[in-house]
Structures are given as structure tokens and as C-alpha cells.
Amino acid sequence: MMLRVPFLLSLLSVPGLSASTENLAAGAKAVQSSTYDSLGDAPNAVDGNSNTDYLQCSCSHTHFDVNPWWRVELPTVYNVTSVTITNRGDCCGDRINGAQIRIGNSLQNNGNDNKLVAVIGPLGSEVTKTYRFRATEGRYVNIFLPGENKILTLCEVEVFADEEFRPESLYLHDQTELQNLALRGTATQSSLHSSSTLAAFGLAQNAIDGNRNSHLKRGSCMQTGKESAPWWRVILHHKSMIFSVALTNRGDCCSEDLDGAEIRIGDSVKNNGKDNPLCATVSSIPAGQTEYFNCSALLEGSYVTVSLPREGTLSLCEVEVFGVPVVRCGD
């Protein structure tokens, strides 16, 4: 059984791109929310040197800020298709977790309100990673790290505008062109809260009702009891290729309970779906907010599982899954 590839590629292609194979950010004007010291100037991240040792003067570095950011101004407006990030390698690599890549033509809020195209998850042993996405028009590329008391360090940012789309590494965020595959699917979870009152508000199906209300007692969030490795899972209507998953966190309390959650996608229910391929790991989501997580690879499956790899309580107020149903020859 083979996937009908032309159908998928026709959906993903974008006409009229300005093609460029060169790094558009090299030597361009760069600024940031603050500068830690003389070694951490913003232009260091576009100097063409990807040295990851901060003391070698080739990385940017902010102070401890609320919502720190870094921005590069491209020579003109491009249809940007990918951004390559080189993280700090000598220490502190986890500081970048949860940073957002935003692209557009506005300087409102220092450019941090421009279109969200990708979220940087834990890089592990990697220091350099490329994020590909649907062509996005803009002159400004921002790296924005939401949260309090955060440091943003970048050792190189490369920006490209080309016509090469590789579905296996696509980072799709234009969910307006894709249906929410989870809506009114079938959901289950590892447990219910021990309090009968709270249990009535925390049913698994609440997380796919199309309502992002983030207060548990308003009946639109799921919640497990406190346990080892709690999980929630949705069965999609059809086996699908999935590009991104959006999670809405609780807003009434306990927003930190979701930190470290894993999103997994596949066709197995072994270990309650927690052995399926990893799409993304949640660094943190602000209270009541919705964050989009691009899968680290193009994943196919019928089950989407969100789980905590530790003891805790899992609560989600909406889970949205974006992709396309798998179309087989003869279907």
C-alpha cells in the first residue's frame, strides 16, 4: 500500500517563492532585548561563525529578561522557508527550550507579534538544527523566548528562502489550511482525579471539544489524578500524517504541571501509546495559553498521546492535531 504522494505535494506546494540558496542573515543588522556583556552582542549570531563557545565572541547573549528576544533584519522582504539555529555548546544548552521563531514585516512589540513558524524544543546533544516551514513572507526574523528570568543565547542564526520542500523535515504552522484532526475524536486517559467533584470536570473528551477555555471547573479541560507517568490519548478518525500539535494549558492554576510533557504519535497502544515516536517535548506553556509544537519529523499514525514521564497530574484544556489523512491507492 503506497501513499498517494502527488496529493500531499500539491497540498504543500506554495507558488511564487523567491528562491535563494544563500544565507540571507549573514552580516545583516541584528538587535536584541538586552546585552549581557561585551562578548554577547546581537550581531555575533550572524557573523558567519558558528563557534559554540561563548568566550570566543561569536554568540549573542541577553541579560536575565522577561521575554528576551533577538531579531535580524533581512536585506529585503523574502518568502522565508527555513531557519537554522546554532545553540550554545559550552554550557546552558537548555536555556533555548521553548524559544519561538517568528517572521513578518511588523516591528510591533519588537517584531515578536509576527507569525509563529516554529518552536525550538530540547536539542539534546545537537547544537545546530534546521526548522523548515511553509514559505512565510517577511523582512524580520525574531527568536523570542517567552517567560520570566530567561536568558537567550544564539551562536548562529541562518535564514534561507528556497523552493525545496522536504516533507520529512517540514515544520508546518499554517493550520488555517488544515483541519483539526482531533476534534470530536475518541479520547481516553490514565485516571480521573480522586475528588468526585473534580473528576466530573476532568473527563478525557473535554480536551477535544473545540473549546480552549482554560478553567477546569468550566468543563472544558481533562485532568488525571496524581500518579506515576499519567497520560491522555486521542484516537483520530483516520490514520494521518501529522505536522503539528497545539496544546492549551490550564489558566486557573497549576500551569507548571505540564512542563516536560511528551507528545507521541503512532499506531501502537503498547504502553498506552507512550512508546510511539516522539513528536515534541513541552518545555513550558504559560497559564491559559496555547502553544504549537512542530513534530521533529513527519509522523504518521492514528493515535496522539500526551504523557508525563514522571509522577504528577496531567491536565489539558484543548489538544488540536494538524495534518492530512493518509490517502492510499484504491481508496
From TrEMBL:
**Which Pfam families does UniProt cross-reference here?**
F5_F8_type_C_2 (PF22633)
Note the superkingdom of the native organism.
Eukaryota
Q: Which GO terms describe its biological process?
A: regulation of cellular defense response; regulation of complement activation, lectin pathway
Question: What residue stretch is flagged as signal peptide?
Answer: 1-19
Q: Does the keyword Calcium apply?
A: yes
Q: Which GO terms describe its molecular function?
A: fucose binding; metal ion binding
InterPro entries referenced in this protein's UniProt entry, alphabetically? BG_Antigen-Binding_Lectin (IPR051941), FTP1 (IPR006585), Galactose-bd-like_sf (IPR008979)
Please indicate if the UniProt record lists Signal as a keyword: yes
Which stretches make up the Fucolectin tachylectin-4 pentraxin-1 domain? 21-168, 178-327
Arranged from A to Z, the UniProt key words for this protein are:
Calcium, Disulfide bond, Lectin, Metal-binding, Signal
Return the similarity comment: Belongs to the fucolectin family.
Subunit-structure text: Homotrimer.
Per its database record, what is this protein's job? Acts as a defensive agent. Recognizes blood group fucosylated oligosaccharides including A, B, H and Lewis B-type antigens. Does not recognize Lewis A antigen and has low affinity for monovalent haptens.
- This chain belongs to the protein called Fucolectin tachylectin-4 pentraxin-1 domain-containing protein
Q: Which organism is it from?
A: Pygocentrus nattereri
Native organism taxonomy: Eukaryota, Metazoa, Chordata, Craniata, Vertebrata
